[in-house]
User: Which sequence fits this backbone?
């Protein structure tokens, strides 16, 4: 009957709508992750020391994690955030020198 056909079409439309909503949510989450994932160098130069869970610390002379990247640059060099985030620290840190710490929202 026509009523059954319409009910079937309505169920199908509801399933398609739910599937579309899920796709939109997935795209939004992926877009957010991509915006927070560093994808460029914060300044011109080379990485003199990269991320590492254990590297020989240049000051303490022992194996320690290195949770950032080191890029030597002249005074006054422009620095850009390599991804969306929140600046949580700027200044001098013992054993590291001048630092900029950006929280990209990846930690729980």
Assistant:
């Amino acid at each position: 009957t026509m009523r059954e056909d319409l009910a079937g079409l309505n169920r199908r439309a509801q399933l398609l709508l739910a599937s579309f909503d899920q796709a939109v949510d997935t795209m939004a989450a992926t877009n957010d992750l991509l915006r927070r994932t560093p994808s460029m160098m914060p300044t011109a130069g080379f990485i003199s020391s990269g991320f590492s869970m254990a590297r020989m610390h240049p000051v303490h002379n022992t194996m320690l994690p290195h949770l950032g990247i080191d890029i030597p640059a002249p005074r006054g060099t422009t620095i850009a955030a390599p991804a969306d985030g929140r600046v949580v620290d700027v200044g001098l840190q013992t054993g590291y020198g001048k630092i900029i710490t950006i929280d990209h929202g990846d930690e729980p």
Remarks:
- The chain has one helix and four strands.
